[in-house]
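ok so i was messing around last nite and threw this chain in just to see what happens. nothing serious, just curious
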Amino acid sequence: MNAKLEKYAGVIPAFYACYDEKGEVSGPAVRALARHLVSKGVKGLYVGGSSGECIYLEKEERMLTLENVMAEVGGEVTVIAHVACNNTRESCQLAAHAEKLGVDAIASIPPIYFRLPEHAIARYWNDMSAAAPNTDFIIYNIPQLAGVALTPSLFREMRKNPRVVGVKNSSMPTYDLEIWRRLGGDDVAVFNGPDEQFVAGRVTGASGGIGGTYAVMPELFLKMDALIREGRMTEAEEIQHAVNAIIERMCATHGNMYATAKKMLEINAGLHCGSVRAPLAPLAEADLPIAEDAARMVREAIGRFC
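result:
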C-alpha cells in the first residue's frame, strides 16, 4: 500500500448517532463516545454513515456531530466523514464543512431511490469531491441498502479523480474486495465492511475495516487485526466466530441493532448515547435481557481473547 494511505489501514469504528433524553443530538455524548473509542487504540472514526443514522438526521445535526468529534479527537486519529445526502447541493455543503474542520477524507454512498445511470452517479460523487478539493474521497459501496452497486466501469471512471483513494466495501461477496484491490493497486485503500467477515475480508485484500459493531467491542477487532498482521490466522478466526455470535445476538431484538449497541455501551462502558431516530425502532422492554446478554458475551470474549 502507498505510504500515504497507511492512515487508513486498521480498525475504524463506524460512529453512532448520540442523542440526549429528548432525542436531540448531544455534543457531550458525541465527545464521550469519541474519547472512549480513541482510548481503546482504534485507527480512526467513520462519522455520519449508516451507524450514524445519516439519512434520518438533519444536515445541521450531522454538522454538529462532526464538529464535536473533531473538537474532541481531531488530529489524534484518522477521521472519515460520510457526507452523502440524497441531493447534491446538501452533500456538497457537508463536504465543504468537513474539509473546513480538517477531516482526513469524505465518503459517500450513491444516491438512493431513483435508479441513476453511472454517469450521473459519477457526477454526484465528483461534485461533492470538488466541494472538498483538498480532501481524500472514499466510495461507499453498500448495494443491499443503497439499491445500486459499484461496478468496475464506474470505479474506473471515478479513478480519474485523483482524490479518490479508497472503497468502503459493504457488499457481502469477498470477491468484490479483490476486484477493487486489483483495479486500484497500491493507490487505493480497500475497507472491509461486513463485520461478520473481517478476517476473510482482510485475507482477500482489505487493508482495514470500517464496521457498525466495532464500537461495542473494539478490543476484539483490534486483537483480530493484530493477529492477522502476525499471520496467526487460526487464532483470528476463533475470535471472528465469537464476534459473529455476539452480532447474531444483537440482531435478535425487536428494536434496531444500533439501539441494542447503544444499550450495550451503557452497560459495559457507562456511556449514554440515547436511543435511535424514528422510524428506526427503539428497544422494547423485552429486548433488555437480550442486550444484557450480548453485553455479557462481549465481556467474556474480551476476557478470553484479550
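not much to say yet. The chain has a mean pLDDT of 96.
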